[in-house]
Amino acid sequence: MKRLLSILCLVTGLVAFARVPGSEKKALIDLYESTNGVHWVRNWNLDEPVEAWYGVTVRDNHVVGLKLFHNNLMGSLPESIGALKELETLNLAFNNLTGQLPVQVFDLRELRVLKIEMNRLRGEVPETIAQLTELREFSAFNNFLSGRIPDGIGALTQLEVLNLSSNQFYGRIPERIGELRNLQALGLFENQLYGDLPSSMGNLTALKELVLSNNRLGGAIPETFGQLASLEVLQLQNNDFESFRNLSGIDTRKLLVFDYDEEESDIDFKKLDFSKTRMADTKFEDDVDNE
Predict the structure, then answer these.
(1) In the chain, what are the domain boundaries?
(2) Is the pLDDT assigned to residue 276 strictly greater than 50?
């Protein structure tokens, strides 16, 4: 009987301490060590169960949330982050992360929220981003990300927020961006994007914020922009557009912010009077609920 009780106690103890797979726990420890965890604002006691660690959410014995917003993470992200296969939320925004953005991040197919803004991450966004079909928000503004915006972005049909502003992306905006029918906010401010805007952008009828300022975009504003009936923020200034004529098709009654190179246009927008500007908010806002 005593032996049976001992075995039961041992099994119970193993279950209590084996709450997440070893590969997931190792990935978290790798992250802690590679980003100077002892100097985080709120660090981890590695002797405690994983579910007790700040910012870690565990469900059904898997890590599903990692929210370390504004927590003084310094250093590079480990490739082992790709072991967090059940991760749904990854919020590492407003830290001091450096080095390459691991491509393994884009293997996390359960991700719904990916927030890495306000860091110093480098590298490209790979075509494998197309695997993240559950993604609702991808915010990466104010980093040093480069390369072209991948065509695979068009596969993210659940996406509601895409903010890649203030990076080093170059080339044309992909035509497939028009497949993001649920997109409500698109920020591509301050990159090195050039060429004509794809006419498919007119399909983004849920879009409320469109910020394309400070690039080298050119040609004429597509006629399809007249379909963007939900727009509240539209910023196009400091580009190389040849014609704003088709902006006259936009219903301006909902617009809170409307910035374009007025001296380049002879269109009369009846001197719209906006009581506020959301340039800073559009570029840098962050939802406290995601902390």
Answers:
(1) 22-120, 136-286
(2) no
